[in-house]
Every structure is written in structure tokens, then in C-alpha cells.
Design goal:
282 residues, mainly alpha, Helix Hairpins
Length: 282
């Protein structure tokens, strides 16, 4: 025997609209998880049952049809009906009942339609509230994701800036070191050039003295001796001056080199960058 619409929704035949709606939602939520043909067929029949029972007129028609199907098949009306006289009072009551029945039926149908409209509005409001909550949650999720992306981007930018600052600082240190080494090389080259000039001057003076000595060999012995003494004195004095000047230059250069190395070690040891220009400052 086929199930009735009430049996499909698992509700009694006296259930109201709220019970019908709640039962249909529970069954629909359960059947939507199934993907087999039987589940889909059951869901379709359940929806048809809900459509019929949620409409007052269609539900009354179905209840009448259901009641008629439950009558015995061999039940038949009597062949004859005994007619008895009806009193006028009963006739008036029957006429009043017939007049009041359409009004009552209309009031009942109007009440059922009002309840159905209120139920539909409540369902629509529930759906609107659920949609608003879903939209709110989606916006909050998007906002949290945007905040996380923004924080990650700021961290990456800060790391890049720190890396660039570190590279710039290292480049400044390398430039300062290269400049200091070049200055030390230039100073050493200057010292070598000065020493060569001193040696060249000394050899030139010795050569001049030798030439004059050769010229004086043809002069008188006394003059030759005087010139020799003068030459020896002048050469000794010149050598003393040259050696003294050389020693002073060497000491000055060594002092300058030591001061610059000490300043370079102090600046680089403290992690600072030299602000002076070694090529210009003495």
C-alpha cells in the first residue's frame, strides 16, 4: 500500500502548518546529502507532499479523497429513503446553516491563507537573515585575509629595507677601506720618490765635486789642498743635512701613517663611517 502524504513527511494528519514546514525542512536537509536515484525520487515526492499540504484548499481536497479511499468498497446507499415530514423550525435551522456555511468556509480559508502568508514571510525573513549572516561572515573573512596579506607585505618591505641598509653600510665600509689603502700606497710612493731624488742630488753633488777636483789638480798644491778640505767639509755638511732631512721626512710620514691607521681602526672598530675625506684632510 502506498504511503500517504502525511506518512511521507512523518507527521500526523492533524499537524498544523508549522509542523508541516519543520518536518519538510528536516527531511530535505537529510535527503540533500544523498546522491542516489532513490534519494532524489524520495525528495521529489516529499516536495510534492509539502506543496499540497501547505495549501489549505489542496489539503482539504486531499483529505476528502483520502477519507473516501478508506471507505469499504461494498458500501452502497440504501435503495429507498423514508421520507418524514420536517417541521418548519428545522427547515429554518437548515436554511440558516446553509447560509452560514459559505461564510464560515470563507473565514476559514481566509484564516488559513493568512497563516500561510505569515509562514511564507517568516521563511523569507529567516532566509534573508541567513543570507545576511553569511554575507557578514564572508566580509569578515575577507577583511581578516586582507589584514594578514597587508601585515605580511609590511614585514616583507621592512626586511627588504633592512637588507638594503645593511648593503649600503657594507658598501660604505668597503669604499672607506679602499680609499685608505690607496692613500697609504700614494704616501709610500711619495716616500720612495723623495728618497730617489735625495740620492740623485747626492750623486750630482759628488759628480760636481769630482769634476772640480779634477780641474784643481792642475792648480797649485795649496789650492788643491784647500779645495779638498772645502770639498770634504761641504760634502760632510751636505750629507748631514740630507740625512737629517731624510730622517725628519721619514718620521713625519710614519707619524701621519700611524695616525691615519689608528683613526681608521677606531672608526671601523666602533661600527661608524668616516665623515672626513682622507684625500683632502692632512
Amino acid at each position: 500500500m502506498a504511503k500517504t502524504l502525511y506518512q511521507l513527511l512523518n507527521i500526523p494528519e492533524s499537524a498544523d502548518d508549522e509542523q508541516i514546514h519543520r518536518a519538510f525542512k528536516d527531511i530535505e536537509r537529510h535527503l540533500l546529502k544523498r546522491e542516489d536515484d532513490a534519494g532524489i525520487d524520495t525528495l521529489n515526492r516529499t516536495r510534492e507532499a509539502f506543496v499540497i499540504l501547505s495549501d489549505a484548499n489542496r489539503r482539504i481536497a486531499y483529505d476528502r479523497k483520502l477519507a473516501a479511499s478508506r471507505l469499504p468498497q461494498d458500501l452502497s446507499p440504501p435503495a429507498t429513503i423514508n421520507r418524514h415530514p420536517v417541521s418548519p423550525w428545522l427547515q429554518r435551522v437548515a436554511i440558516a446553516a446553509l447560509l452560514l456555511f459559505p461564510i464560515g468556509s470563507w473565514l476559514y480559508h481566509d484564516h488559513q491563507q493568512t497563516k500561510q502568508q505569515a509562514e511564507l514571510e517568516r521563511i523569507q525573513n529567516d532566509k534573508a537573515i541567513e543570507a545576511a549572516e553569511l554575507l557578514k561572515n564572508q566580509r569578515e573573512q575577507a577583511l581578516r585575509e586582507n589584514q594578514q596579506i597587508s601585515a605580511q607585505y609590511q614585514d616583507e618591505q621592512a626586511a627588504k629595507r633592512a637588507e638594503m641598509e645593511l648593503r649600503l653600510r657594507q658598501q660604505q665600509l668597503d669604499d672607506a677601506r679602499i680609499l685608505t689603502e690607496q692613500q697609504l700606497q700614494n704616501q709610500a710612493s711619495g716616500l720612495d720618490l723623495m728618497e730617489k731624488r735625495l740620492n740623485t742630488d747626492a750623486r750630482a753633488q759628488e759628480q760636481n765635486i769630482a769634476e772640480r777636483q779634477a780641474e784643481l789638480q792642475y792648480q797649485k798644491p795649496a789650492m788643491a789642498m784647500a779645495l779638498q778640505e772645502q770639498k770634504d767639509q761641504h760634502l760632510a755638511l751636505q750629507r748631514q743635512r740630507s740625512l737629517k732631512q731624510h730622517d725628519e721626512n721619514i718620521a713625519s710620514i710614519n707619524s701621519l701613517r700611524a695616525a691615519r691607521l689608528k683613526a681608521y681602526d677606531r672608526d671601523h672598530g666602533n661600527g661608524g663611517i668616516m665623515t672626513s675625506n682622507p684625500a683632502v684632510d692632512p
